[in-house]
Amino acid sequence: MSPYDSPGTQVRAGRAAPLIDGFGRTVTYLRVSVTDRCDLRCVYCMAEHMTFLPKAEVLTLEEIDRIATAFVALGTRKLRLTGGEPLVRKGVMTLVERLSRHLAAGDLDELTLTTNGTRLAVFAGDLARFGLRRVNVSLDTLDPALFTRITRGGDLGEVLAGIEAAKAAGLKVKINTVALAHDNADEIPSLIQWAHGRGCDMTLIETMPLGEVEADRTDQFLSLAKVRKTLESFWTLRDIPLSTGGPARYVEIVETGGRLGFITPLSHNFCEACNRVRLTCTGTLHTCLGREDAKDLRAVVRAGADDAGLIAAIRAAVDAKPKGHDFQIARGGAPAVARHMSTTGG
Ligand code: SAM
Ligand code: SF4
Q1: Which ligand sits closest to the CA of 180?
Q2: Ligand 1 proximal residues by C-beta, below 6 Å
């Protein structure tokens, strides 16, 4: 018997009522962190010396498949794998291949991935083969020395090769860039030009207060309202009504012909249209990125719950999805949410 032949993976989509929370929002998007580990240590994301989770605490690939499949049965149409770095998880392609059956069956519109790109050159072909159409690649600078400093040791060349491999495999690449007041503020326009020149959309992200890191976040914080103003001093930004149900607001830059997204969780409230929930690599379901709410689905699965039990646990968690988040960067204060982005998945 294959490890995937567990009763839970028999869940078929389209049978159950959709997942609607207490405020009438339908949950159709699941992000799954497949590992807390990473081959980089970005300064805004991780501490230099991280203690990673013991293997037993992390969901097995079979458990991830089972929980994700339950979500698909409950109307999830979009699934994003993230981390940590999803491509450093051993066997992750087996999971991608398994999950791709939902694409083939028409039960899922999109299976996608957020990656730092270091291993993309190795896996891009397989990702395309298993039905992925797009990937998000995080990249904060094109300066090799600065890249190494921001990521504490990363090699820019690997990421650039990964991006090229993804494009060659037919994947659309979106670049995610965290706006950092000191490190890349001045480089943002040229990064946008670079990305748009390669047919890649780009999204700028404000730093979010998730998890303890060494740097003072108020030092790194750069308001995207300010960035937008600067860009508007030399480019024409046209708002486009593209909504992903998430925190990004999009514009088209007339001069570059590309799209630019702004993710501004701190200065913007994006909660009314929120359609997403997050599963950590330990099986904890967070229905709001900015709050401490949590449902332990690993406990449910490991206690031997059948499909009905798993689905009931998911429904109860979604029913209690908070109305909105509560981020704040208080100088010198504790992060609003103690868990790191790498555990929750960005
Ligand atoms: N390792 C993969 C990557 O870097 O793309 C996937 C996981 S990473 C946690 C997902 C995204 O979260 C990345 O784009 C990263 O830049 C962003 N991120 C990490 N920590 C953040 C923070 N404190 N504030 C804002 N964005 C953050
Ligand atoms: Fe790793 Fe991504 Fe976090 Fe950077 S942002 S340390 S690549 S998980």
Answers
A1: 1
A2: 38, 44-45, 82-83, 85, 114-116, 138, 176, 178, 205, 207-208, 210, 341-342, 346
Enter the pTM of the model: 0.91
CATH of the domain at 322: 3.20.20.70
Phi, psi of 294 (to 5 degrees): -160, 140
pLDDT for the residue numbered 1: 35
Token readout for 315 is 């429904």
Q: What is the pLDDT of residues 201-260, one digit of tens each?
A: 999 999 876 666 666 655 788 999 999 999 999 999 999 986 666 678 899 999 999 999
Residue among 303, 301, 315 at smallest CA distance from 8 = 301
Cα Rg of the chain (Å, integer): 19
Work out the percent of the chain whose per-residue pLDDT is above 90.
Answer: 71
Contact 250, 259 (CB under 8 A): yes
Q: Cα–Cα distance between 39 and 111 in angstroms, integer?
A: 23
pLDDT at position 4 is 38
Domain count, the chain: 1
Q: State the residue range of the domain holding 328.
A: 3-344
Task: State whether the beta carbon of 115 lies less than 6 angstroms from ligand 2.
Answer: no
For residue 14, count other CB atoms closer than 10 A to its CB: 11
Q: Read off the pLDDT band of 321 (50, 70, 90).
A: confident
**Average pLDDT, integer, range 108-136:** 98
Q: Which of 102, 68, 103, 74 is nearest to 86 (CA)?
A: 68
Q: Is 245 left (phi over 0), alpha (psi -120 to 50) or beta?
A: left
Closest CA to 93 of 34, 169, 21, 160: 34
Residue 267 neighbours by CB distance under 10 Å:
12
